[in-house]
Amino acid sequence: METILYLIRHGETEWNQIRRIQGHSDIDLNELGLRQAEQVARRFQGEIIHAVYSSDLSRARVTASRIAEQSGSSISTRMTLRERCYGEWEGLTYEEIRARFEAQDEAACGIETFEDMQTRAVTALTEVASSHPGESVVVVSHGGLINSFLHYVTAGEQGTGITRIDNTGITMFRYVDGQWEVLQVNNTDHLEI
Predict the structure, then answer these.
(1) Interstrand relation of 3-9 and 170-176 (parallel, antiparallel or unpaired)
(2) pLDDT, tens digit, 9 for 90 and up, residues 40-79
(3) Cα separation of 161 and 177, whole Å?
(4) I need a labelling partner for 112 at 20 to 30 A (CA). Which of 75, 92, 118, 145 fits?
């Protein structure tokens, strides 16, 4: 039995807008992000969604709550669905990082490795899909985590460093017999309404 998984990036935050790295920092949705959350929720109107999962960070949780309200589901939050931890880089722009940390490597700054984040993503999403055979599930997470998972599923053809994941972009997967397949990447048609 196949599971359909809608993997959705949270709505916009102020830090997204000014390009500050968020990581595990708990930043709320801005006004546009709240509108995007409503728009992505309307996208699921009339569809049967069996479960909604979310990162425990508020930007994902609030986005997921709008979808859960629309589908009549409750939300299950998971720390394992969080964005990559960026340690000392969190709250900084890329320009500030280059100026302050030029000589330091990522490990010295307390940054989670890409491999660790990807393993966390694959484990968490496979557990979710395995728990819902024959069902449709929404998972609201973060751009970095979504791209790392997409990178895994496509063996590097898409995902980190290649694919842009927009705020409330929907990336859709099929999970059947222990195998993942990409059905759609970063669909934002709901934002054009």
Answers:
(1) antiparallel
(2) 999 999 899 999 999 999 999 999 999 999 888 889 999 9
(3) 29
(4) 75
Q: Known binder of ligand: residue 84?
A: yes
> What's at 77, amino acid-wise?
T
Topology (CATH level 3) of domain 3-83+113-187:
Rossmann fold (3.40.50)
The string of pLDDT tens digits covering residues 85-128 is: 999 999 999 899 988 887 677 888 999 999 999 999 999 999 99
Give 187's Cβ-side CA count (13 Å radius): 15
The answer to whether 88 is annotated as binding is no
Going from N- to C-terminal start, the domains of the chain cover 3-83+113-187
Question: Was 35 annotated as part of a binding site?
Answer: no
Active site residue 10: yes
